[in-house]
Amino acid sequence: MLISLPLDGEGSLQQQIYHALRRSVSSGRIAAGSRFASSRDLAAELAVSRNTVVAAYEQLVAEGYAETRPGAGTFAAVVKVEPVRASLTEIEPAWSEYSLRLGEVPEHSLFRPSRSKLRYNFLYGEPGYLDLPIQRWARVIGKKARGLTEAQLGYAPAGGLAILKRALAEYLQRSRGVSCEPEQVIIVQGTQEAIELVTRAFVEPGSTAVIEEPHYRGFERCLRAAGANIVAVPVDEGGLQTVALQAIERARVAYTTPSHQFPLGSILSLQRRMALLDWAADNQTVILEDDYDGEFRYEGRPIPSMQSLDRRGCVIYVGTASKVLFPSLGLGWMVLPKSMVPMFLRMKALSDSNCSTLEQLAFAEFVSAGYLERHIHRARKKHRTRRAILLDTLQRELGDSVEIVGTQAGIHVLLRLKQLPNDCMETLIQRAAADGVGVYSAALYYLKPPPYAELLLGYASLTPAQIKTGVRKLAAVIRSLSR
After folding, report:
1. What is the overall mean pLDDT for the chain?
2. Which of 210, 341, 407, 447 minimizes the number of CB atoms within 10 Å of its CB?
């Protein structure tokens, strides 16, 4: 049977013939049981090669739209076509209590500042992209990609490659005083996965968890979704006020950023570190130490990590490649007390079978060959120069009308505007942006925002000239609002 086949011109001739015949069978235009034209006749009718028609017929048979009968030809099959309903109502799934709580939590992405194209963008929380050894990284990852073995193309251990765990254990001992064996290191997809794993491991609905105030909200969001009873402990220039912990009993977990408190930038004193460890041991509390940018310290001798002072197996140490290299690398690490390793390996395997093998291999060489430490050394010198210019320009432009907090470490400072109330913040940000300056409010990281305006000023990605000009423009906006 020859019929007129409307070809739609999309795809190859074989695809067009296949789609046209399938539509005709499905719609009933070709009745079930009707014999198709021979492949030779249809090819002549459409002016195509016979092989093109044969291939289209074979595809129809494979999908059940046609059937072949030996010695008789190809016939349209019986196809049950579901009628198209005008509207469909989606099911209403029975969400878990966790999901319902999560639905009430603001999206974590709301607390990540968006990268704008402003000329003087004091974006915080990201490394100095201009300083990155991208060419070196490209050579290392290219070499590893070319040398991948068949075994490395398969699934890797959930806890990370042994070669990377060894390299990190040695590096963390040198750079942060962390005391561990490679088996205590678990590779994760950055700090946030580590936080989520710790939350699942220790937090149940109604259990107590301690956070800093102000604090990194990625952890607070996990706690709220888990149904935790959140207790916020104030932070001052000496870090977490450990005296306030004495009124808190049986907390499951306490989160701290001791080497450069986020967002205030204070450094937890050695005395308070020891008090926190004693309190945790007395209350059987796990301490989550987030050392997100501990490599960047500019004044005084580095204070050892909390983990290096721990003698009771209280501390889980977490680090990330996001600040020392770049966020999209997506690699972080946890250093666990030995007794916790088996459970976290199980949890990691359930949530994520393994991090990328190629990136792990490349990062392992980057660490073991000394490339990472050389990069950090160079970046630290550049950041120190940028920081000095930022502080000097802020002092000259704004003087005693502002307070600058968290200057000893990290890659951002907090600017406290003592003459401006917090409700001026939106206007300040908009006016600064209109003049090409990107600034960001610290109020997002408080449970109870401060009465005065506070800005987070990141400086890692700005040149000295951009810092000077950006601060001058920002100061002009601040002065105009202070009148």
Report:
1. 90
2. 447
